[in-house]
UniProtKB/TrEMBL annotation, chains A, B:
Signal peptide: none annotated. This is Stage V sporulation protein AD. It comes from Neobacillus piezotolerans. It comes from the Bacteria. One of its GO terms (molecular function) is acyltransferase activity. It holds the Pfam family SpoVAD.
Amino acid sequence: MLKGSQTWIFDSRPEILSTGVTGGPFEAAGNLAGDFDILHDDLWMGEETYEKAHSLLIEKAVDTALKKGGVTGKDIQFFLAGDLINQITPTSFAARKAEIPYFGLFGACSTSMEGLALSAFILNYGGAEYILTGASSHNAAVEKQFRYPTEYGGQKPPTAQWTATGAGVALLQKNSGLGTLPYITSATIGKVIDMGLTDPFNMGGAMAPAAVDTISAHFSDTGRDPSYYDLIVTGDLAKVGNSAAYELLSNKGLKIEKGQFRDCGMMLFKEDQPVQAGASGAGCSAIVLYGHLLNELKKGTYRRILAVATGALLSPLTFQQGETIPCIAHAVSIEMDGRQ
Amino acid sequence: MLKGSQTWIFDSRPEILSTGVTGGPFEAAGNLAGDFDILHDDLWMGEETYEKAHSLLIEKAVDTALKKGGVTGKDIQFFLAGDLINQITPTSFAARKAEIPYFGLFGACSTSMEGLALSAFILNYGGAEYILTGASSHNAAVEKQFRYPTEYGGQKPPTAQWTATGAGVALLQKNSGLGTLPYITSATIGKVIDMGLTDPFNMGGAMAPAAVDTISAHFSDTGRDPSYYDLIVTGDLAKVGNSAAYELLSNKGLKIEKGQFRDCGMMLFKEDQPVQAGASGAGCSAIVLYGHLLNELKKGTYRRILAVATGALLSPLTFQQGETIPCIAHAVSIEMDGRQ
């Protein structure tokens, strides 16, 4: 049901039956290693190219979610997913292996919540029994495409972010009525916001206004206030974008406690890992949400999370052509009644 | 409502209120010039880059659809669209101007029907009052990315296709009950199909099995047979793929008349235009469907159309890495009760 101008309320509360979360060596050395299903100890993962390794991350995340959910690919109606690579080939190649009817999505690092919002809508109205949705990135594949091959050793400013290696996939189903699984209650779809910033090494700063626009719209559309959520977590604003977004939200009169407003890009890696402002990449919010945060929800650390995945919709070409960086954010509410 | 394994039936029959169709000089010299709203007489369209011209095609198609529909951007809840350019920047940049909550899609040349299927689903269940959806391509922007800059004058084999320049956008609404507009009755979402073909200059041949898989699934899921439709039209299989698909469908026992099975890629340009096997590009099916075919539907030439947009999910990188070409097709049924 549409509520306000850009929010859906999911009365039937579609559930997250299971998830699959895969990562690379840098994630294995990070803060959240215990929340991954599979961690690879090198970036090649036994493949010939980084892009094939990227596909493998998705395939393994899909396999894991299916296995944990106790269903097979044939039970799943749709797969909604995307990544950052040109023509999202790692995801499409993984979809070829999965043999599930497929919607390719591109929302840069907002793809995770674009997919979760659409999947929840489809399930809420009986458009499927089961849906798989997710997003992913691979540090070396993404860095060589957007910036330099990592082997080149290019230096980066402190505002830059480290592209996460990993895939996060969720297997969704209609509400089972058992009350033991996390469920989706609403989603707010973002507009493209462009404040005229042009620095591709400060995407967090560029994306912060998009996150703020979507978060404000979410509260305005739902009539809720921030106290409804134990946690409002952005996708990958990292240090620079997180503090900018917090200030902008405060200026808008939204009272959010500092500890209640976190960022996936600041949670994934340890303080002493050389990731500049934090993590990024389409996989970042998918990994942290479908791994760590759902685990915390199941433990009872949180009861209601607003997950706001943020995306910078630029390309190397638009940067070279002197364009500014259009950004977007989509927010999805995930709740759970008790501990699992 | 899900019917069978991969088909949605839209009981409330969302309508196409209006469309906007823009094109370039080659389209102006083609078969369907009279079905465009705006035709540009050169590929630059007054812009500094082909990519900006690409965005302009989308912006003008959106403006036209809104104007013809008698609504403003503020009335529209969502914009679902995509294109072929890396990170679909022409569409995202157009979405920035439109200021409408935005879902970026990537399904290569299947994007038009991926967007129409999702939009119809959302409208069918009250997830929006109005939705804009569409797809686009720009010959020079796409050719330079996937093959060579057109200025280079690279030669192509007869199986190659000519990337269309243009954008097709549809403005959808809930069924008005007036019975004077085309409406959407079902959609079948395709799987990724890869028969091991590797020649990027024969995408029609590569995509034909995906079209056949989705068309077969559509009839199997709905219990309809091909005689239900006056026209089954594929996106851009062009000459090679069209005859391959027709043969594959016949082999599956689906009785389709030759005149009832057409292809947008064989309709757009004149026989004497140097387009080898025909037209292609994400804009091709969007232009032909939202322009010419809806006009024919309104004239009464057709009453029921199954539009099957086909996409080749490769990239220049996957080709260089020796990968085969995964393909997909999504089918949407568009019907109209009488002449407008």
